[in-house]
Write a structure and sequence with these properties.
With 357 residues, the chain is an alpha+beta fold. The protein is built from nine helices and 16 strands. The protein is elongated.
Length: 357
């Protein structure tokens, strides 16, 4: 970038990078231009037109997310004309969207449209007529709710599936009010190439797509809290936010700023957490009695029994008679301790981990 790369945004000079759009530079400078089809992880689309701005020398407002900055460009983001256009556009979107509150539990961006309507002071009811979107309650997959009555055809789900995940499981059919988001020739998600990564859920700005797993706990009154950690399932090291209500783990969310995953997760990282509080999960060590039945024991008793069994096996059958497998649900520190134990105990390298990237 040269010192001459400067443009004017709402009366103040700003430097910009070559190829940067008005939308990107404005957000970097702290100016919140509204949008419904924008996701920083995706190629700019310019479909919702909520991000329109006025550029000096151009008669009509332009979409800021697809308009690249040129030197000495003069941009205004909040003129009366621009504000009027945004409100009208949002009123038209809301006219075909059911007037019902959508829980933020559905996904990271589920409240975006309603929050924007509140921010702009826009109400439903000015326009009325045909509606688009057709929900798929018959799709009984266990992970993703497809409530397309709330769909506004921003195509963020379709684009994230293609551009980020490379699955192309979601597509678009029809035009105008007949537009529908489909999966695999209008089939259920389970019959498509969907890998249940959940990225479509987290990018949806209306809650048309929802996380069925976390929605099971919507009735819990405790306020949700998030805790940043690392997914234990494989060696990639994806950053995740565990969502809890009180002492209950209710869901997992991908970290959009995670250095390894940037908002992406596999089906295990996104949805496979029920084991944490499963009714069948062991809460105390078990050892076999003389009849071969498993009975509760203290930690000291269980550890002594395990140590005795390992050393006796090595003494009788040799050091290669012992093999260790570390759990993919345990942290890296536990896996390290496990491999050190096995190598020091037997002197062999018979140690593995069930995680696979």
């Amino acid at each position: 970038m040269t010192t001459e790369n400067v443009f004017e945004l709402d009366g103040r000079p700003l430097r910009f990078e070559d190829g940067e759009t008005i939308f990107e530079a404005a957000r970097r400078a702290g100016t919140a231009i509204p949008s419904l089809c924008y996701d920083p992880r995706l190629n700019a689309f310019g479909g919702c037109r909520m991000c329109v701005v006025q550029v000096e020398g151009i008669a009509k407002p332009v979409a800021s997310c697809t308009t690249k900055i040129t030197r000495d460009m003069v941009v205004k983001t909040t003129t009366p004309k621009v504000e009027r256009l945004r409100k009208t556009l949002l009123e038209m979107v809301l006219s075909e969207n059911p007037d019902r509150q959508v829980s933020a539990d559905r996904g990271l961006a589920a409240s975006e449209m309603n929050d924007l309507a509140q921010r702009l002071g826009v109400r439903r009811g000015r326009f009325a007529g045909a509606t688009s979107g057709k929900s798929r309650p018959e799709d009984d997959n266990p992970f993703i709710l497809r409530d397309y009555d709330l769909c506004i055809s921003c195509y963020r789900c379709v684009r994230v599936c293609a551009e980020r995940e490379g699955d192309y499981a979601l597509g678009v059919k029809g035009r105008g009010f007949a537009t529908q988001i489909t999966a695999g020739f209008d089939r259920a998600l389970g019959d498509s190439t969907c890998t249940y990564c959940g990225q479509c859920v987290q990018t949806c700005p209306t809650g048309a797509l929802g996380d069925k797993q976390i929605m099971r706990f919507e009735s819990l009154s405790a306020a949700p809290e998030t805790t940043r950690t690392i997914c234990p399932y494989c060696g990639v090291g994806c950053s995740v936010d565990l969502v809890t209500k009180g002492d209950r783990l209710v869901g997992v969310r991908p970290a959009m700023d995670g250095p390894a995953n940037k908002g992406a997760l596999c089906v295990k990282g996104q949805f496979a957490y029920d084991f944490v509080q499963h009714a069948d999960r062991l809460k105390t060590p078990l050892v076999r009695n003389e009849a071969g039945e498993l009975t509760p024991a203290s930690w000291d008793e269980a550890l002594d029994r395990a140590a005795r069994g390992l050393t006796e096996s090595i003494a009788k059958h040799g050091r290669k008679s012992v093999y260790g497998v570390a759990s993919g649900r345990a942290p890296n520190e536990a896996a390290y301790a496990m491999q050190k134990l096995m190598r020091m105990l037997s002197g062999a390298h018979y140690i593995d981990n069930c995680s696979r990237a």
